[in-house]
Amino acid sequence: MSIAHHRRKQPELVRQQLLEVAARLSLEQGAAGVTLDAVSQAAGVSKGGLLHHFPNKMALLNGLFDDLTEKLDRAIEEEMRNDPVAHGRFTRAYLSVVFALEEDADAQRWQVLTIALLSELQLRERWRLWVADHADEFVGTDSSPGCLLARFAADGLWLADILKSHDVDQPMRQAMRAQLVALSLQ
Amino acid sequence: MSIAHHRRKQPELVRQQLLEVAARLSLEQGAAGVTLDAVSQAAGVSKGGLLHHFPNKMALLNGLFDDLTEKLDRAIEEEMRNDPVAHGRFTRAYLSVVFALEEDADAQRWQVLTIALLSELQLRERWRLWVADHADEFVGTDSSPGCLLARFAADGLWLADILKSHDVDQPMRQAMRAQLVALSLQ
DNA sequence: ATTGACAAACCGTCCAGACGGTATCTTAAT
DNA sequence: ATTAAGATACCGTCTGGACGGTTTGTCAAT
User: Fold this and answer.
1) Residues of A 139-168 whose CB lies less than 7 Å from any atom of strand D
2) Which end of chain A is less crowded, N or C, counting CB atoms within 10 A of the terminal residue's CB?
């Protein structure tokens, strides 16, 4: 911050703002709403300015993806640090994060974005890699059928939250979570 | 067929062909690949011809959605007819259909389409309605936490199949299915 | 003769990206 | 401490193409 004080241009803030706005637009207007014009204008930057930070649209989308997975990874690591049991540790952390998503208002913005990102071929592949890498990293502790099933169920719940298709009340949610945690231990 | 025989133009076939091609394009090129130009050209029809069958693009997407849910409903009904146990009957039928998806080569084409459809705001709402309607219809038999959980897990597996993120081998798949069926009964 | 099923040309809009330019910041030599 | 030199962070405009949709034309079947 000491630097920021005598620094009038703060490119990192602009970059963050652009990502923020892009995520918000995808939430409010769907994937089609994320155009260079719309993003730059809503972020109070010219299109040239946007393209300075992200040389093309794909770079912007990749930036969103990076931001998303980074946050996800941090949240998961945080949860894993507080779990003494090795077996299914990653799965339980994953469960925690997914179950927390609905309550975190900030996180909601990212949920719909995920769907939008998944509809892009290249980003779908990146997502695949993310999953594969994590499955690989925790193959020793989290590859039992129970763990896999628990994570699948979490994904299903996450999808339902996005679509608001079911509304699961809080007691039911907690009951489900308990059952999935039990699965992760078996 | 008797009509088609002495009829050179077969509008119903063209319509089917258009939907087929649109689904294929979304699989091969992502949602962005489904343009009126691309669909009509790949279907061997002029753009005017396409717009004769579907007055605008949304109508085409709605047509895809209708086709998809129709097939889904038929498959589910078929499965439900062969299940003597009332409790969780819908959930088990849902499981059967989802687990069968990966084997059915024809069905694969529709999987990615689903994601593409979900990225469209209006179609997401239609999907929400479909889910809500079915949850409502079978509220007496399929609203237990076990059933809900089983369906969530099926959705997660379906997502994993689409992304090819995990490759679950056949024995594991069957074990998971058995476990989910058990959940649907509890 | 009318109509349904297309084809072909065309229109207006939107959008990704290029480009030329300007303001601001950093570095380092003086 | 000043300042020249270059890098970085933007801005505003333009363009070529894509895309959704319209209009008009054609032709076979009824």
Assistant:
1) none
2) N
Query: Do B115 and A119 contact (CB within 8 A), yes or no?
Result: yes
Nucleotide of closest approach to B12 (CA, C1'): C5
Q: How far apart are CA B83 and CA A111, in angstroms?
A: 36
> What pLDDT band is residue B169 in, cutting at 50, 70 and 90?
confident
Tokens of A38: 């719309």
In one-letter notation, the amino acid at residue A13 is L
CB-CB contact of A116 with A110 (8 Å): no
| Closest of B81, B75, B78 to residue B98, by C-alpha | B75
Question: In CATH, what class is B1-55?
Answer: mainly alpha
Distance from the B109 Cα atom to the nearest Cα atom in chain A, whole angstroms: 14
What is the per-residue pLDDT for A2?
32
- If you average pLDDT over residues A166-177, what whole number do you get? 88
Q: Sorting pLDDT into bands at 50, 70 and 90, what band is B175?
A: very high
What is the amino acid identity at position A63? Answer: G
Rg of chain B (C-alpha set):
19
Structural contact between residues B39 and B57, judged by C-beta atoms closer than 8 angstroms: no
